[in-house]
């Protein structure tokens, strides 16, 4: 009985040592993966910052086009309103003349 207890204790210690080695290997792989991810994110951030100027330019062009379009629409609506007001006034004058 003493021998089997010692044998089981040795087997448990060996299995614990193997488990410890596996956890160390997994930890090292995890550290490598995190480092690789950090490098990838740094590269992505660098490339993103290089495009900031382009996005700002596109935003300014969009704002300018929006302003021009708004002015054009306002002018067209004003012209249409004037035309309808002239026709309305002309019809009222014709109605009053009769």
Please write out the topology.
Elements: H1 2-50, H2 52-97
Overall pLDDT score: 88
Structural class, please? mainly alpha
How helix-rich are the residues, as a percent range?
Answer: over 70%
Strand content: under 5%
Tell the overall outline: rod-shaped
Summarize the main sheet.
none
Low-confidence blocks of residues: none
H/E element string?
HH
Number of helices: 2
Number of strands: 0
Radius of gyration: 40 Å
Quote the distance from N terminus to C terminus.
Answer: 130 Å
The domain tally reads: 2
Question: Any key phrases for this structure?
Answer:
98 residues; 0% strand; mainly alpha
Notes on the structure:
With 98 residues, this protein is mostly helical. It has two domains: 1-50; 52-98. The chain has helices at residues 2-50, 52-97. It is rod-shaped.
Q: What would you say about this model in short?
A:
The protein is mostly helical. The chain has helices at residues 2-50, 52-97.
């Amino acid at each position: 009985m003493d021998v089997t207890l010692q044998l089981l204790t040795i087997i448990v210690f060996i299995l614990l040592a193997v488990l410890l080695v596996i956890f160390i290997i997994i930890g090292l792989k995890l550290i490598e993966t995190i480092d690789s991810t950090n490098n990838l994110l740094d590269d992505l951030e660098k490339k993103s910052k290089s495009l900031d100027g382009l996005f700002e330019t596109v935003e300014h062009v969009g704002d300018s086009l929006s302003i021009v379009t708004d002015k054009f629409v306002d002018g067209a609506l004003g012209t249409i309103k004037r035309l309808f007001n002239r026709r309305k006034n002309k019809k009222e004058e014709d109605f009053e003349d009769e």
